[in-house]
């Protein structure tokens, strides 16, 4: 996992796909249309409108073929992150959505807050529970950049 501010994107020049995704995030505004954007052959960005909540009924998710970069354009979002080896898988891997879901059987998760310029890069071994509210549930526009592994 990487947790940083978008103003530090130059630190990631040595990682071309991560850097390309971060450049997209830095140039995006709240007026960026809700859509899927192709950045390069390995990187796409999904801009969507989402709702945070006190709990996420899907619990933790992980991806095998993609790295995620989570970045709200407005508001803030809590994300719990835990290595998948400390979680209990409860769904079969879905290759079409590149997702598998896990429960947390008491493992310690790291809690981060994205938004207000902060982003998170989540790797395939990072189980993550996104869309959790910080203070109270809120609607937000969010970008999730997907990088092929």
Poorly predicted runs of 5 or more residues: none
What is the highest CATH level, the class? Mainly Beta
Structural class: mainly beta
Helical proportion, percent range: under 10%
Sketch the major β-sheet: 6 strands, antiparallel
Number of strands: 12
Strand/helix succession: EHEEEEEEEEEEE
The strand line-up of the biggest sheet is: 1-10-5-12-3-2
Provide a count of the helices.
Answer: 1
Distance between the termini: 14 Å
Radius of gyration: 15 Å
Judging from the principal axes of the Cα atoms, what is the shape? globular
In CATH, the architecture is Sandwich
Give the percentage of residues in beta strands: over 45%
User: How many domains would you count in the coordinates?
Assistant: 1
What can you tell me about this protein's structure?
The protein has 149 residues and is mostly beta strands. Strand 2 and strand 3 form a beta hairpin. It has one domain: YhcH/YjgK/YiaL (Jelly Rolls), CATH 2.60.120.370. The chain is globular, with a radius of gyration of 15 Å. It has a 6-stranded antiparallel sheet, with helices on one face. It has a 3-stranded antiparallel sheet with strand order 4-8-7, with no helix packed on it.
């Amino acid at each position: 996992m990487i947790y940083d501010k978008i103003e530090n994107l130059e630190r990631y020049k040595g990682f071309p796909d991560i850097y390309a995704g971060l450049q997209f995030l830095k140039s995006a505004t709240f007026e960026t249309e809700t859509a899927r954007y192709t950045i390069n052959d390995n990187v796409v960005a999904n801009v969507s409108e989402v709702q945070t909540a006190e709990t996420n009924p899907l619990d933790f998710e992980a991806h095998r073929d993609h790295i995620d970069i989570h970045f709200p354009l407005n508001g803030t979002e809590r994300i719990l992150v835990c290595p998948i080896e400390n979680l209990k898988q409860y769904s079969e891997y879905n290759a079409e959505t590149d997702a598998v879901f896990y429960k947390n059987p008491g493992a310690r998760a790291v809690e981060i807050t994205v938004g207000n310029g902060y982003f998170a890069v989540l790797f395939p071994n990072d189980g993550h529970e996104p869309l959790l509210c910080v203070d109270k549930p809120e609607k937000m526009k969010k970008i999730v950049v997907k990088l092929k592994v």
